[in-house]
Amino acid sequence: MPDIEDSSTLAGVPDAFQRLWTPHRMVYIHGQGKPEGDHDCPFCTSPTKDDADGLVVARGEHAYVVMNLFPYSPGHLLVCPYRHVPDYTDLTADETRDVAELTQRAMRVLRRVSGPDGFNLGMNQGEVAGAGIAMHLHQHVVPRWGGDMNFLPVIGRTRALPQLLDDARRLLAAAWDE
């Protein structure tokens, strides 16, 4: 659990802000452990594990659905082709169809399980476009609720997520075949 530091204990002039320290996020921010090839790519290794360990929600013929390890909101899913390709134009017709169908299914399941008001769908193509792992294509399926983002991302550069990844994965995986 992150430590909350009273600003009056800091050097300098105290202000009205409390600090919510989340040092575990520095791994993501600095890109530590970013893959250097398909041998250590998390989107290549995740489906080789059992579903719970790999955070896999569902598997298709050419693509699969996995929980985002750094989610924007509870239930944030990624739809990834099994094949290690960086660009949407690199997908075969079958892979494109599987990614699209799994994305649609993910939206239906998320609606049934958690009732979001809407979704953000997207692919960040290349590091300059915001892709955290640019070498392996992945489609974001981000459930959204009215008022789901508060002051923390704006002021504290922190996200409050009320559901653990494994809890969300279990609920979504169980509902996938309903």
TrEMBL record:
<dbReference type="Pfam" id="PF01230">
    <property type="entry name" value="HIT"/>
</dbReference>
<feature type="binding site">
    <location>
        <position position="140"/>
    </location>
    <ligand>
        <name>substrate</name>
    </ligand>
</feature>
<dbReference type="GO" id="GO:0003824">
    <property type="term" value="F:catalytic activity"/>
</dbReference>
<feature type="short sequence motif" description="Histidine triad motif">
    <location>
        <begin position="136"/>
        <end position="140"/>
    </location>
</feature>
<dbReference type="InterPro" id="IPR052908">
    <property type="entry name" value="AP-4-A_phosphorylase"/>
</dbReference>
<dbReference type="GO" id="GO:0000166">
    <property type="term" value="F:nucleotide binding"/>
</dbReference>
<dbReference type="InterPro" id="IPR036265">
    <property type="entry name" value="HIT-like_sf"/>
</dbReference>
<dbReference type="InterPro" id="IPR039383">
    <property type="entry name" value="FHIT"/>
</dbReference>
<protein>
    <submittedName>
        <fullName>HIT domain-containing protein</fullName>
    </submittedName>
</protein>
<keyword id="KW-0547">Nucleotide-binding</keyword>
<dbReference type="InterPro" id="IPR011146">
    <property type="entry name" value="HIT-like"/>
</dbReference>
<feature type="domain" description="HIT">
    <location>
        <begin position="42"/>
        <end position="151"/>
    </location>
</feature>
<feature type="binding site">
    <location>
        <position position="68"/>
    </location>
    <ligand>
        <name>substrate</name>
    </ligand>
</feature>
<feature type="active site" description="Tele-AMP-histidine intermediate">
    <location>
        <position position="138"/>
    </location>
</feature>
